[in-house]
Amino acid sequence: MGFTVYLSGEIHTDWRDQIRSGAEQCGLDITFLSAVTDHDSSGAAGDHLGEESSSFWRDHKSAKVNAIRTKTSIESSDLVVIRFGEKYKQWNAAFEAGYCAALGKPYITLHGPEIIHPLKEVDAAAMAWAESTDQVVEILKYVTKS
Amino acid sequence: MGFTVYLSGEIHTDWRDQIRSGAEQCGLDITFLSAVTDHDSSGAAGDHLGEESSSFWRDHKSAKVNAIRTKTSIESSDLVVIRFGEKYKQWNAAFEAGYCAALGKPYITLHGPEIIHPLKEVDAAAMAWAESTDQVVEILKYVTKS
Amino acid sequence: MGFTVYLSGEIHTDWRDQIRSGAEQCGLDITFLSAVTDHDSSGAAGDHLGEESSSFWRDHKSAKVNAIRTKTSIESSDLVVIRFGEKYKQWNAAFEAGYCAALGKPYITLHGPEIIHPLKEVDAAAMAWAESTDQVVEILKYVTKS
Amino acid sequence: MGFTVYLSGEIHTDWRDQIRSGAEQCGLDITFLSAVTDHDSSGAAGDHLGEESSSFWRDHKSAKVNAIRTKTSIESSDLVVIRFGEKYKQWNAAFEAGYCAALGKPYITLHGPEIIHPLKEVDAAAMAWAESTDQVVEILKYVTKS
Amino acid sequence: MGFTVYLSGEIHTDWRDQIRSGAEQCGLDITFLSAVTDHDSSGAAGDHLGEESSSFWRDHKSAKVNAIRTKTSIESSDLVVIRFGEKYKQWNAAFEAGYCAALGKPYITLHGPEIIHPLKEVDAAAMAWAESTDQVVEILKYVTKS
Amino acid sequence: MGFTVYLSGEIHTDWRDQIRSGAEQCGLDITFLSAVTDHDSSGAAGDHLGEESSSFWRDHKSAKVNAIRTKTSIESSDLVVIRFGEKYKQWNAAFEAGYCAALGKPYITLHGPEIIHPLKEVDAAAMAWAESTDQVVEILKYVTKS
Amino acid sequence: MGFTVYLSGEIHTDWRDQIRSGAEQCGLDITFLSAVTDHDSSGAAGDHLGEESSSFWRDHKSAKVNAIRTKTSIESSDLVVIRFGEKYKQWNAAFEAGYCAALGKPYITLHGPEIIHPLKEVDAAAMAWAESTDQVVEILKYVTKS
Amino acid sequence: MGFTVYLSGEIHTDWRDQIRSGAEQCGLDITFLSAVTDHDSSGAAGDHLGEESSSFWRDHKSAKVNAIRTKTSIESSDLVVIRFGEKYKQWNAAFEAGYCAALGKPYITLHGPEIIHPLKEVDAAAMAWAESTDQVVEILKYVTKS
Predict the structure, then answer these.
(1) How far is D4 from chain A (nearest CA, A)?
(2) Of A22, C98, G41, H62, which one is least surrounded by beta carbons within 10 A?
(3) Residue H70: CB partners within 8 Å, gap ≥ 6?
(4) Phi and psi of E4, rounded to 5°?
(5) Which residue from B minimizes the CA distance to C76?
(6) HSE-up of F49 (CA within 13 Å, CB side)?
(7) C-alpha angle with apex G113: G107 to G118, nearest 5 degrees?
(8) Contact predicate C68/B79, CB 8 Å
(9) CA pair distance F12, F34, nearest whole angstrom
(10) Pick from C78, C129, C145: which is nearest to E72 by CB?
């Protein structure tokens, strides 16, 4: 069975590449989707729509352009993997988890044990908590095996 | 027109009381709902279901008991107000924002200007951003006036 | 059978009052909902959230505060009456008609014969076209009679 | 990621062609859908179903035949671009915006700054406001880039 | 448990009154809804909206006014009872059965054994087939008993 | 734009073939779906599941096996064409019309003018009424033209 | 906050009464719903609709009459409590758990530790697992406290 | 017409292979999906996510990983076949039947006559009851024939 998997969350490490190459090595029939992960491009996604004097509206326009992509990606996925790192607020990752939960879209979280407590509501609605990208690949292998 | 409003997010300041009393002073016909805001009760919500040796499962059980209440509250509300403070991860607040967004449930955010940037995705799907509880009460007055 | 009816559209004539008083004279069990129909209040609905230098964002904020009220009103109605006058663009009225159509919420239009042609798509999805408020009251009498 | 984009609204200028050829020049993987944009064909879409003595019913029949196409197009799209010109009522364009909003289908508007005010409710529910077809192509490039 | 029951279909016998009075005699907590069952009123429901030269459009307008009432009634019911007699086409009754089936709204049919065969698709999606109004009352008693 | 069209209703004349061959002659990109139109096969669709002494249950089992096919066909179509002849009850055709109406699935009816009155509720929710298969093909040509 | 709670499953012990009286002693604002729990009445729920020679169809008719009540009860509840005993197949209890899961309706299970393994899929989608009715009452107290 | 069929339930006999090979011999255009049917793999599906001291949580984790696969399979199927054997609790099979029922996903049951009574609620919502895999293949042949 083929799966479409959306990779959501943290953009500062290469976890997406690890999962993609792990899946490829196992020969899995998976299409991966992702937000734009280049921080500067993402923050500037709405800049070509006209300059803003207020940072609120500049952020607002970029966030909405990104949301076109994100919303379509989540809705066309069979599974979402959401990565939380230790730095930054990452409220967009938690926002996407809530979005999945309300849609009944299965998601799994990927994070270290030191942030279990603040993520308890996010983990409570997840189908699994993984600590390593290897574990994620293992899940993908299992759910797609014929 | 009567409204049901769910107050979500930060539990360390008295912003809920400010909104409730502001609405009462204006004589608004609003029913307010809220998660349990006592931090210790909330964290222990699942403890009576049996002890756990792992903190992950203890948190997990409590988070799910809380989610029964939260989910019902969000779904029966006409509007959700989500407060972000400056401290803590508050991923549950962002999670509830995403949940609202996917349901098409209108929400407004309440936070200071210093966290505009990390909240840009959350604000992008909101109906308004307020900085003070007075502004929230003003919105409630407007949307319920006959 | 009681009905909730949302009165949408043109705000420059007293058509809402005519329908309300017609229904009252017939003793109908109807709750009427409406957007804020005072043009200045409506345009300023977001002003207390902070000044904007750009008229786009000022309008944007007010439109969103109004949308909280509008969305809740439409979704809690059994029937929507949408009035189109001859002046102004009234794109918000057509927008609300499309919103109803997608939800499967029954609506009727109220307009003169001179704007039949530009309203053809809006009328095509309506349950009735009325030219006078008396006709609207007649429909309300019929659909609620015991 | 491939996208399906429905081009809605004004039919008197060549904005659809500009977007299509812009996307083609950038090599984007996009399927474009559109209503029938020939004004006479569109107005006569129901004529073969029998003559009508009243212009209301002639318009009604054509509008419904067009709606078969429109509804299917909107529902199978990932994104809708809605163009408003300065002439004509264009209530069908605003109607389609409302339809998208109720479905949670992302849309962007394309219009000049002189009609910001009457479009404020339509823009409030949009993911972006563009003034030029180049800006639209830029958004399409961003949301589909791998 | 209180129930709302919509009585759909045949209008030439007093089956609705039999069910209503049977329920009353048993003291059941049931609200009954119904289309307008006076054949002439129902056929003329749209006449006040203006005369039509074609019988198709006269019927069309009345049918849509009736549909406002019918749709709201079905959607607010917990159970629908659909009566088929031996005379007339009664396509509206079968139409309402299909409407219920698609919504997942439980319905029961009420008809004699001589029309089992043509009603097989309608009965296949029903929760019960009753031959008498007494049997219907028996079901209502059972499903609402405390 | 490709369309999937489900052909529902009367099985005693060759209207399905006329539409199929008309569409083929016009080179339309349409996939046609249909119930099993052989009357005997359709009535016996459940017979292999075991004999029944009662004709009600024999019909019941066959109707449900047919419904598996019908439901999937309707839900995967973009448009449904529903044919009513002058003979027989054809309650299944009206049932499928109601099913479409509740799903918001566009349908058109195909019938002669002598049954306008009993079909008024079914026509009221249709996107068009056609009297001939040529008219249906014309609509298909229009809604799929590039 | 008031809650409606549906009590599903095992009918041979007095667990429903224990929860009802526990909630009453705590003064909770809860409406309890339940299937008919008298085994003989439940099995005979369709008998008045006519005798059947086959036990399959007798069961079938009764099960469907019961389903009218069950479906309405589940859909109008905020929370479902599902009790599994050690005896009997209790497939209806597991069926109702699956029904809740697909609707996104929160449910909690009530069963002893000796049937953890066969219930693992049912528990995996539950919001909590309770072993005693006291624990259930504790949860109800928590989720409804003001 | 091609169909996707999910094979749910009992894993101790070769009924899946019988259906698959029967469909193949008839040349049917069917894609079959299934849970992982190796009992040990299935029970260990979450083991690589870390050891658990409690059997409840070990089961819980595996059941959730399996649910990712199951949920996607059910939702992408046109028809579900659910097999109940005579041994074991098989609550997951009844759970999946309830899940289908709530989604309006057609399913058929496959079981012997000796378990008619405990399966009556499950059968009441099914489209057919088959006793042999040959009967299932017969249904698949019928619903997909061109």
Answers:
(1) 11
(2) G41
(3) H8, H35, H96
(4) -110, 130
(5) B78
(6) 27
(7) 70
(8) yes
(9) 14
(10) C78
pTM over 0.90, yes/no: yes
Reported as a single tens digit per residue, the pLDDT across C34-59 is 999 999 999 999 999 999 999 999 99
Name the residue of chain H whose CA is nearest to F58's CA: H128
Q: Give the rounded distance of the alpha carbon of G55 from its chain centre.
A: 25
Query: Smallest CA–CA separation between G39 and chain E, in Å?
Result: 13
CA distance H127 to E121: 12
As a whole number of angstroms, the distance between CA F48 and CA F64 comes to 13
Q: Per-residue pLDDT tens for E57-88?
A: 999 999 999 999 999 999 999 999 999 998 88
Q: State whether B1 and C67 contact (CB < 8 Å).
A: no
| Number of cross-chain residue pairs from E and F with Cβ atoms under 8 Å apart | 126
Rounded Cα distance between G111 and G119, Å, is 9
D57 to E53: CB separation less than 8 angstroms, yes or no: no
Q: Which ipTM was obtained for this model? A: 0.96
Structure tokens at G75: 């859909």
Cα distances (angstroms) measured from residue G3 to each of A124, B44, G67, G80: 22, 21, 22, 11
Q: Is F35 exposed, middle or buried (CB count within 10 Å of its CB: 0-12, 13-18, 19+)?
A: buried
Q: Do G121 and H95 lie within an 8 Å CB cutoff?
A: yes
Distance (Å, whole) CA B58 – CA A129:
15
Chain D residues in contact with C99 (beta carbon < 8 A): 98-99, 101-102
- Name the residue of chain D whose CA is nearest to E61's CA: D57
Number of A–H residue contacts, CB under 8 Å: 43
Instruction: Name the packing angle between helices H133-144 and F55-75 (round to 10°).
Output: 50
Amino acid, single-letter form, for residue C130 = A
Contact B64, G75 (CB under 8 A): no
- Are A130 and A108 within 8 A, CB to CB? yes
The position carrying tokens 């607002």 is A60
For C18, counting Cβ atoms within 10 Å of its Cβ (0-12 exposed, 13-18 middle, 19+ buried), the class is middle
Please indicate whether, in this complex, the C-beta atoms of C53 and A57 are within 8 angstroms of each other: no
Residue A103 distance to chain D (closest CA, Å): 12
Q: Are strands E107-110 and E128-130 parallel, antiparallel or unpaired?
A: parallel
Position G139 pLDDT exceeds 90: yes
Distance CA A107, CA A84 (A): 13
Q: In what order do the strands lie in the sheet with F107-110?
A: F30-34, F3-9, F79-83, F107-110, F128-130
pLDDT at C2: 87
Distance between terminal CA atoms of chain B?
Answer: 6
Alpha carbon distance G54, G47 (integer Å)? 12
**Burial (0-12, 13-18, 19+ Cβ within 10 Å), D47:** middle
Res D87: pLDDT: 86
F-chain residues within 8 Å CB-CB of G58? none
Q: List CB contacts (< 8 A) between E57 and chain D.
A: 54, 57
- Angle at the Cα of C16 (from C13 to C19), degrees rounded to 5? 125
Over A19-61, what HEC string results? Answer: HHHHHHHCCCCEEEEECCCCHHHHHCCCHHHCCCCCHHHHHHH
Nearest to B65 among G3, G128, G144 (CB): G128
Strand order through the sheet with E3-9: E30-34, E3-9, E79-83, E107-110, E128-130
Characterize B42-69 residue by residue with b for buried, 16 or more Cβ atoms within 10 angstroms of its Cβ, and e for exposed.
bbebbebbbebeeebbbbbbbbbbbbbb
Which chain F residue has the Cα nearest residue E103? Answer: F102
Chains that touch G (3 or more CB pairs under 8 A): B, E, F, H
CA-based nearest residue in chain B for residue H60: B57
Q: How many CA atoms lie within 13 A of A46 on its CB side?
A: 25
Residues of C in contact with D60 (CB under 8 A): 120, 123-124
